[in-house]
Each structure stands twice: as C-alpha cells, then as structure tokens.
Amino acid sequence: MPCSCARATSHESLGLWASLNAVPFYEAAGWDRGVERDHETNGETLTVLEMRKQLTDSGA
Questions:
Q1: What spans are recorded as compositionally biased (Basic and acidic residues) (predicted)?
Q2: How far is CA 5 from CA 23, 36, 48, in A?
Q3: Contacts of 59 (CB under 8 A, 6+ apart)
Q4: Per the structure, how many domains does the chain have?
Q5: Closest CA to 56 of 17, 4, 1, 7
Q6: Does residue 60 sit within a domain?
C-alpha cells in the first residue's frame, strides 16, 4: 500500500532505515541497500541500513 500511495502522488522513490535482521525481507520485496550507520534509541546503539525502492522507471 505505501508504494501505490507514493506512486499515486508522483513520488519517484521511497526510503527507510532497516535493522540488519530486516534487510533480507526488504531485499526480497525489491528494495536496494544503501548506507549503513549506527542509530541510538533508548540508550542502545543499533546498526541500521538505508533501503531505497525506485517507483518510477529511471530511463523515462
């Protein structure tokens, strides 16, 4: 649903930060890996990976 809503409003891509254990899930859904970084939350430091999904044909 987020992808179809973003397409309907003319967005070209989506991005998110995924925990490392979630990366295979997003890759299977067509998302591409980006930059890895540390994210601090509730006093804990977690490694996350930027994920991007292209919604439009980049050749257009």
A1: 50-60
A2: 22, 27, 25
A3: none
A4: 1
A5: 7
A6: no
